[in-house]
Amino acid sequence: MRFFTKIALFCGFISCALNAQAQNYPDKPVRIVTSFSAGSGPDALMRNVGDKVGKQVGQAIIMDNRPGANGWLAVDAVKKSPADGYTFLQVDNTHVSLQQHLFKKMPFDFNKDFEPATPLYWTNFFIVVPANSKWNSVGDLIASAKEKSGALTFASWGVGSAGHVGAAMFEAETSTQMNHIPYKDLPSVYNAVANGEVDWAFGTAASAGPLYRAKKVKFLGIAAPKRLTGYLDIPTVSEAGGPKNFELKTWVAIYALKGTPKAAIDKFNQETLIALKDPDVQKNMSTFGFEPWLTNPAEVAREAELQSKKFEIVVKQAKMSIE
């Protein structure tokens, strides 16, 4: 009997210790390793959110930028860290749902090594054309693509990028065929569109918005279920004569190493959601055309799985592959 009493006391002690640890989390600075470069939209927003979260929990949220190598530098840095709730990874849906279908070989299995901690935002893509383009609707672009099969060009920021995969989806749903012209980075893509070097590209309010406001490009439609606040004069792709319910979006979330204490993930998710509702953060998001994603880690996992299945089909149909 004494033995079982001791076991019960020990279990009670462990339970109390874990509860105390959860209540005290975080008791030191938290590091966010990001795959995005300093000064980019995702980085700027994360710093804004991190500042709010830091004040809420009384600990610093430190940004660690590790851009490049398809985001793998950031992934590797977090993989080498303890799964203790003090190191998180900021990535977008291409890292979570697309790369495993594109690359023949990867140095990690993202969805086995990581789990969602908290969502941040999503943003949808516009169809971007030169300001002097003769097309005034998505229907005009589709008609031209069918008339000149294989002659039209679209740009993206690399083979297998969201812009490339999105265009492949667009081609499949409109029964058209166009030529892909990859560029080395985002600014080059939209400069090429503005200069008429290519016919069109997908772009977000953050990436193509500056040239749109400068009247060097125009938006034919947004690949979203509804119009975007701040761009309410731009119809959805469906409204503009494109495929019904056509949507292309990217989302950004925070992931944790598998094995991270659930209490730490729950706390970080809770505090981040509070920060995302802050008027200052929401104003910052609207500047970039970001929509706050106010949900839980389980919903992020479901969305990632749905997108993975969708991307797998598109990649196979378009015969995309990267060594």
UniProtKB/TrEMBL annotation:
Q: Which Gene3D superfamilies does this one have?
A: Bordetella uptake gene, domain 1 (3.40.190.150), Periplasmic binding protein-like II (3.40.190.10)
Q: Which positions, given as ranges, span the membrane?
A: none
Which keywords does UniProt give here?
Answer: Receptor, Signal
Signal peptide interval:
1-22
Question: Which CDD domains would you find in this protein's record?
Answer: PBP2_Bug_TTT
Query: What family is reported?
Result: Belongs to the UPF0065 (bug) family.
What's the protein here called? Tripartite-type tricarboxylate transporter, receptor component TctC
Upper lineage: Bacteria, Pseudomonadati, Pseudomonadota, Betaproteobacteria, Burkholderiales
